[in-house]
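Design review, sub-item: ligand-bound model
Attendees: FS, YL, KQ
YL presented the inputs for the iron/sulfur cluster complex:
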Amino acid sequence: MRVVSCDCEACQGMCANSTCLPTPEQVRSLVKAGYANRLATYTWGGRHYIAPAPKGMEGGRDLESTILGACTFFDGKHCEIHSIKPLEGQLADHDRHWQPIRLYVMAQWKGKQCDSVLKALDKPRVSGVQ
Ligand code: SF4
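KQ shared the predicted structure:
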């Protein structure tokens, strides 16, 4: 699937109302870049994920949806972490249906890989983050 970049009103609306899902490798990169305290853990379908938190819910645990309000990284027009934004945000576009994109990114989260990322988030000092 091709990566896209669009800042039309519809695309901004996604970030104003929801958060996007990264791959586990991207979570590690976000933690290393110092953003651990802007993330949250999510749980649905019996599986766990880590993603940017909704504004005001940074550090939240076991959120059951990514549609809980504006993303912590949305400044009202743009993504604060545009160059390293999560894969779902890279693939999402006003013209594309969200569900295949979400399922594709969810498929990147499997087994022990996910567990090790969760540990990295709960021990941010290990990754050099205060
Ligand atoms: S990380 Fe960036 S692209 Fe993803 S929801 Fe937040 S502001 Fe939008």
